[in-house]
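**Tokenised fold:**
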Amino acid sequence: MADSGSVIDWLLDSDPSIRWQVLRDLLDVPEAQWRAERAKVATEGWGARLLACEDEDGQWAGGAFIPRDFEAREWHQVGQPWTATSFSLSQLREFGLDPSSAPARRAVTLIGASSRWEEGGQPFWEGEVEECINGRTVADGAYYGVDVSPVVARLTGERLDDGGWNCERANGSVRTSFDTTINVLEGLLEYERATGGTPESRAARTSGEEYLLERRLFRRLSTGEPADEQFLCFAHPTRWRYDVLRALDYFRSAAILTGGAPDPRLGEAAGHVRSRQLPDGRWLLDWTPPGRVWFEVDDGEGQPSRWVTLQAMRVLNWWDQAANRPG
């Protein structure tokens, strides 16, 4: 196995959006140092490039969820487009755009004034009707300092009896979806990080976590078989899709916020991530959701991915440190 230092060097030889997270999550440098690197997201590399795609009214591609020039046949022939406002804001959050920066404040204000959901014309920060979309809207809103408490209250009331959420609930579904649940959990966690949450939102987050933990993050409760083999493949950007690496990174982030220890039921998923490490210490990108993007941020499917490697390394570092903690 390659020296981890060479992998760290490879990660650092990258974009500011990756470098600052390596400094914070893998090298544990002083906060002032990683914040200085994070500030570059607004002015250099992928963050600056995505900000340059923003419309004058604060939106991206002229729409909240889909581009203004979108035609339904594109979804079927190419894939879901990822260039509109919702996904662009989420990607900037993943990059680490400072929410107090001038570009972030400008976008948040203009979007609140001009962007409307295609589904029903609702103002952007009031949310849509699908739980997975609202989960990401809560995550983005809380991160960027918007009051999204009404959307949070709606989500907590839409939890299904088995513990999680499903975007098809309005169409009669009564079974939780892994995909929808991870989107909602990430939103509730970001809201809790920003505001402390409410008793209802914290209880809902615990319930959604338990749904995933009971299933070891990827197994059917009824048979023990993988609910979807693709959950064991690593994607980037994940968009609304679920996989075990995304789930582990969520549980890591939640534990850092609450001070909790890793649940033992995460062990099988962590072992799977470890098993996928290449001899040179890196991880491959298995797939990318198809569809229109502003630009690529990985070297392609089947190639080593800095994003996947960053996530995998910080998840396993967290898991291993907890396992070796006295007591």
Notes: The chain has a mean pLDDT of 96. Residues 178-195 form the longest helix (18 residues).
